[in-house]
Amino acid sequence: MVSEPPYKSEHKALALAVRKKIFSLVIRYAGCHFRELERISKLAPSTLSYHLHYLVKGGLLSEIREGNTRRYFPQVFKHENKKILSLLRQESMRKILLVLLINDSCQHQELCERVHVSPSTISWHLKKLEESHVVTCSKEGRTTRYSLSIDKEELVKLIITYQETFLDTLVDRVVEMWEA
Questions:
Q1: I want to staple 93 with a disulfide (CB 3.0 to 4.6 A). Which of 50, 87, 89, 160 is the partner?
Q2: Could you tell me if 93 and 175 lie in one domain?
Q3: 69/32 Cα distance (integer angstroms)
Q4: Are 72 and 119 within one domain?
């Protein structure tokens, strides 16, 4: 997580105001994808792409590709946090992670009811979360329970740090619960 950028504002890559703006947005919205940055910055896609590429080559930002999606982070972000924040940026994944954070472990049907998506969608997301080593499943007789395999404190820190960038009432409730 980054609270204050450890970079000097005189850094060559930050000489232009547009690059400073993009860099500040990536710090504030760490893990957001290219199109989201495009909407927030109100820059043309080609302009944004050029300056993001320059900031990545300059060592200030890192880029992670997931299929056709590119996500951007401040360079100082830990790899594990990049993975978690990338998942938190996806609404359904975020809801599943929050439900598992609150409940320790859940069955498939419980997740369907609490996240309000179809069973097949939950299965797809759980498969992705298991492949990312964020969620584990354990069989108890005929039932399968899912639980977080990542550090809950680190997850909560990321949620609290980037709470305002999620625009999600469930996130707000989890933060209120943790701060109480």
A1: 87
A2: yes
A3: 10
A4: no
Residues 50 and 30: their CA atoms lie apart, in Å, by 18
For helices 91-103 and 152-161, give the axis angle rounded to 10 degrees.
Answer: 130
pLDDT digits (tens, 9 = 90+) for 35-64: 999 999 999 999 999 999 999 999 999 999
Q: Same domain, yes or no, for 43 and 99?
A: no
Burial 139-175 (b: 16+ CB within 10 A, else e): eeeeeeebebebeeeebbebbeebeebbebebbeebe
Is the same domain home to 65 and 145?
Answer: no
Residue 40 has a CB neighbour count (10 Å cut-off) of: 17
Instruction: Tell me the HSE value of 116 on the side-chain side, using a 13 A CA sphere.
Output: 3
Contact present, 178 and 154 (Cβ < 8 Å)? no
Instruction: Locate 124 and state its tokens.
Output: 């797809």
What is the dihedral angle through the alpha carbons of 43, 158, 135, 71, rounded to the nearest 10 degrees?
Answer: 20
Residue 6 lies in a domain: no
Is residue 5 classed exposed, middle or buried when 0-12, 13-18 and 19+ CB atoms within 10 A define those classes? middle
**In this structure, what DSSP letter does residue 128 have?**
H
**Rounded to two decimals, what is the model's pTM?**
0.79
The string of pLDDT tens digits covering residues 57-109 is 999 999 999 888 899 999 988 988 999 999 999 889 999 999 999 998 999 99
